[in-house]
From TrEMBL:
Signal peptide: none annotated. Keywords: Cell membrane, Membrane, Transmembrane, Transmembrane helix, Transport. This is MFS transporter. It is found in: Cell membrane. It is a multi-pass membrane protein. It comes from Actinomadura barringtoniae.
Length: 485
């Protein structure tokens, strides 16, 4: 599945990155527009959360299945179908005039996003097989994700204020159509292994239901509490379903997920480290924005502009520094350095005051968060290092699944802790701004702890490698297998 010319490969990377930009842009742009949507459609605070939760549950629950199906029916086919579903769902969401249609459209957007994003990294690592070239490609891909998050916050404020919230979804239409039109000639065709090579229906049902139920349980923790019957009961059922899935994979003739992919310490360790790191980074991505709006009184647009230096810093590091550091010092060392910078950012935030000065209290954090430009490319490289050509989609789906679990875990843990601390301080008679800030301090400290845990996993589990021994390309199918096919 290699392209004929380097130029073609980089054009294909542009298509893949644009899809990721669109999906990440959609997530951040919706967050900014939630108050306007609530006012227009009459959402209650509880029902409003389903605009985000419906999308998150669909993505997190279907990524693993979509990744494996991409290997079976062809990753290009899955990519195109996912973009078509996402674009159509965006049209429905933008045209929604009622709560139920908007929530259904958001769930459908999540389905389309899972289908396309599950195979993106699988396509990327089979296109770029040389170590240095792949490192550059992953750096560009990671930069796109950082840019999408920050651009979404700014663009969401502009579109909502200048036009209406409907346009935060309509903006996906020209992007989605352009991606599909360009992907048809640019992405290489792959036939896939065929459904007979791994159509494990029982495994698919166990994995999808277990992941969806688990993510639903995590995003509802703030409403029910950690020790409630709702959380403990559904959490136990989710774990049982996932345990049954792994038992099934160990015994099935054609498993949905080949467990050999987890035997690699670098792959397993990178997925665990990613889950912990993204849980911790949620504190920056969301809670800092809440602090700016609820404590400092920033508007949505002002918040997006205030966080723009972070996107520039992450982008500059991922594009111009991360690949060079990995080539010289190794991927694990680069990952460790990035985690140290992120921890420093969270530690700095634990002392942020109620009446903050942007230059002295927030701008240093925006610069330290550049560590994400080292962490994200390194984790991607390690997480995909065990992928072979015939299961790169599965590895991509697994890696993206742990991303979603990490974000859901961050929502559950950090939001709940912050809200609980805030309520305690309000009950003690503190003013709202002080109570909110104290709650956010606890979230930032917990985030630092999660990043320390990611550092320990990286240090203990991941194997150091000399620069010239960085993770290599997926193994191409053997001549015998090609002839047999």
């Amino acid at each position: 599945m290699s392209l004929a010319t380097p130029r073609s490969r980089w054009l294909a990377l542009g298509v893949l990155s644009t899809t990721m930009l669109m999906t990440i842009l959609d997530g951040s742009i919706v967050t900014v527009a939630l108050p306007a949507i609530q006012h227009d459609l009459g959402f209650s605070p509880a029902s409003l959360s389903w605009i985000m939760n419906g999308y998150l549950i669909a993505v997190g629950g279907l990524l693993l299945l979509a990744g494996r199906l991409g290997d079976l029916i062809g990753r290009k086919t899955m990519f195109l179908a996912g973009n078509a579903v996402f674009t159509a769902a965006s049209l429905l969401a933008g045209a929604a005039t009622g709560q139920n249609l908007l929530i259904a459209a958001r769930f459908l957007q999540g389905v389309g996003s899972a289908m396309s994003s599950a195979v993106v990294l699988g396509i990327l690592v089979t296109l770029f097989t040389e170590t240095r070239e792949r490192a550059k490609a992953i750096a560009v891909f990671s930069f796109t994700g950082a840019a999408g998050a920050s651009i979404g916050q700014v663009l969401g404020g502009v579109l909502t204020d200048a036009l209406s919230w409907h346009w935060i979804f309509f903006i996906n239409l020209p992007i989605g159509i352009a991606v599909i039109a360009l992907a048809l000639p640019v992405l290489p065709a792959d036939k896939g292994l065929g459904l007979a090579s791994g159509a494990d229906v029982a495994g698919a049902l166990l994995a999808t239901s277990g992941l969806m139920l688990g993510i639903y349980t995590m995003v509802k923790v703030e409403s029910y509490g950690w020790l409630s019957a709702h959380t403990l009961g559904l959490g136990a059922v989710s774990l049982l379903l996932l345990a049954a899935f792994f038992v099934r994979q160990a015994t099935a003739k054609t498993p949905l997920m080949k467990l050999r992919i987890l035997r690699s310490r670098n792959v397993s360790g990178a997925n665990v480290a990613q889950m912990l790191a993204l849980s911790g980074m949620f504190a920056f991505q969301v809670i800092v924005a809440l602090y700016m709006q609820k404590v400092l009184g920033y508007s949505a647009l002002e918040t997006g502009l205030a966080m723009l230096p972070a996107a520039v810093a992450i982008g500059a590091v991922s594009l111009f520094i991360s690949a060079r550091l990995a080539a010289r010092f190794g991927t694990r060392a680069t990952l460790l350095a990035g985690l140290v910078l992120l921890f420093a950012a969270m530690a700095y935030l634990t002392r942020i005051p109620v009446h903050a000065n942007y230059v002295t209290d927030l701008l240093p954090v925006m610069l330290l968060i550049a560590g994400g430009g080292l962490v994200l490319p390194a984790l991607t490289t390690l997480g995909m290092s065990g992928a072979r050509d015939d299961d790169a989609g599965l590895a991509s789906g697994l890696f993206n699944t742990t991303q979603q679990i990490g974000m859901a875990l961050g929502v559950a843990v950090l939001s709940t802790l912050a809200a609980s601390r805030t309520e305690d301080h309000l009950a003690a008679g503190k003013d709202q701004a002080t109570a909110l800030t104290d709650g956010f301090h606890l979230a930032f400290a917990t985030s630092g702890g999660l990043l320390v845990a990611a550092f320990i996993v990286t240090l203990v589990v991941l194997r150091p490698a000399k620069p010239e021994q960085q993770p290599t390309a997926p193994t191409e199918p053997s001549a015998e297998r090609s002839l047999a096919a």
